[in-house]
Specification:
- It comes from Paenibacillus rhizophilus.
- By secondary structure, the chain is mostly helical.
- The chain has 5 helices and 3 strands, in the order ααβααββα.
- Strands 1-3-2 form a 3-stranded antiparallel β-sheet.
- The chain is extended, with a radius of gyration of 21 Å.
Amino acid sequence: MNSPFSTKTVQPDISLSICGYTKVLEIISNKWTALVIYAMEDGIIRYGDIRRRIEGISKKMLTQTLRQLERDGLVKRDITPAVPPIVEYSLTQLGESLLEPMRALKQWTNENYSQVEQARESYDRVNNEE
């Protein structure tokens, strides 16, 4: 039986470099990424409509986010030749498969985040008095 105070070297069993979950969190942990995915959850949408749906996102940040999501295989970009060209975005099948876990996280947030805020306030009260 290993004691918690053992001097025996233990190999890490959690790794940032090989953990698939960590790699997915890198994709969706950006606040803009999650919001852009939510903006596309109802189907095909144009750039300007995405921008109007997301409060505070700049053109530069929206463009960067869409390019990264396209690179990751989560978003499809279609261009229809016209003057000016019509550019539409939609979630790929892979992107759509991400909606369910993101909705579950959103539901958890709606149900529990007030407790997180209360815990932070309690922690700050206790630790700021020291």
